[in-house]
Amino acid sequence: MKSIGSRDKLQAAAAATGPRRVLLLVFASCFAFATLLTFLYTSSGFASAASSGSRLGSSSSSNAAAGSGAALPLPVFDALVHYASFSNATHRMTDTDIRAISAILRARGPCNLLVFGLGAESPLWLALNHGGRTVYLDENEFYVKYLEPRHPGLEAYDVSYTTKVRDFRDLLEAARGSRAAECRPVQNLLFSECRLAINDLPNELYDVPWDVVLIDGPSGWNPNSPGRMPSIFTTAVLARSGATAAKGPTDVLVHDFNFEVEQVVSKEFLCDENRVAGSGTPSLAHYVIRSGGPADAFCAAGQDGRATSEEKTRRK
Questions:
Q1: Which chain regions cross the lipid bilayer (predicted)?
Q2: Which of 47, 169, 225, 285 has the fewest beta carbons closer than 10 A?
Q3: Distance linking the first and last C-alpha atoms of the chain
C-alpha cells in the first residue's frame, strides 16, 4: 500500500506540472520572438543611421574638397590689396611691390606658394592665395612660434642658415667651382652638400610642385646676417628639379632687388634670360624658371653672374 500511494502522489505531481511546462514554453517562445524583432529593428536603425551618416560625411567631404581649390572672389582680393597698400605697418613693403606680387598671385592662384621670410605682409599672401597652399620659411624660430597661433592656417618652419653676407663672394666662387658636382642645377636637395643648399626642411616640402616662390628672407642687412644666397640658390634648384620642374614654369620673385647680394646671386642662379621685363619694380625682380637646360650650368653661355672686366674696373 505504501508503494502504491507513493506512485499515485508522483502521478498527481506530474499531472500538476504539465500545464506549467506548457506555459513556460509559450512564455520562452514569446520572449525569443520579441528579442528577434528587437534585434532586427535595431540593426535596421543602425544601418539606416550609418548610411545617413555616410551620405552626410561624403557630402561634407565633397563640399570641403570643392572649397579647397576655390579662388578668392576678385572684389575681396582687390579690397585686401587696397587696404594692405595703405597700411601704416612698420617695415612693410611699398605699395608698388605689394601690387606687383599680388598680380602674380592673382594670375597663378590658387597655387602652391613658398615664401622665404615672415613679415608684415605674411597674412596678406595667405589670404590672397585662398584655396592654395602657402608655406613660410624663416630664420627666427621664436617669430614662427609667435605668428602661427595668431594667424590660423599659417604654415611656417624655421630654417638654420650657416652663411654670412660677408662671405657671399667666396660662397659664389665655391658654387661655381662645383657646378657640375655638389652645386649642380638639377639635384635632390635633401642630399646636397653644396654650402648654398637648404637641405634641412621637412622632407615633404621638397616634393611639393611649387608654382610661385617669393624670396623675402632671410635677413641681409649687415655682414653677419645670413643673406639670401641660400634661398636664391635653393629656389633655382627646386624650379629645375623634381615635382616643381615637372608641373611647368615657376614664377620666382626676389624682393629687395636693389641690394648687391640679391642682384649678383639672382644673376648667377636665376639668370637674366629668365627675367620678365616690366613686371617688377626697382626693388622686386620677377623670373620665370623652366625645367631643362644643361646639367652643369644654370644660365646660358655668358649669362651667369661673373663680373666683366668693366664691372671689376668700376669696383676699384
A1: none
A2: 47
A3: 145
The answer for residues whose C-beta is within 8 angstroms of residue 119's C-beta and 6 or more apart is 91, 92, 93, 216, 217
Where is the domain boundary, 26, 49, 68?
A: 68
Question: Which amino acid is present at 315?
Answer: R
Domain boundary among 52, 68, 84: 68
HEC string of 81-144 equals: HHHHHCCCCCCCCCHHHHHHHHHHHHHHCCCEEEEECCCCCHHHHHHHCCCCEEEEEECCHHHH
Q: Which domain holds residue 64?
A: 1-68
Domain count for the chain, please give it: 2
Q: Which three cell numbers stand for residue 194?
A: 653644396
Do residues 64 and 80 both lie within one domain?
no
| 79 and 213 share one domain | yes
> pLDDT 10s digit of each residue in the chain, 316 long?
344 444 444 344 444 455 555 444 544 454 444 444 444 343 333 333 333 333 333 333 333 333 357 888 887 888 888 878 777 666 778 999 999 999 999 999 999 999 999 988 999 999 999 999 999 999 999 999 998 888 888 999 999 999 999 999 999 999 999 999 999 999 999 999 999 999 999 999 999 999 999 999 999 989 999 999 999 999 999 999 999 999 999 999 999 999 999 999 999 999 999 999 887 789 999 999 998 778 789 998 655 555 433 333 333 3
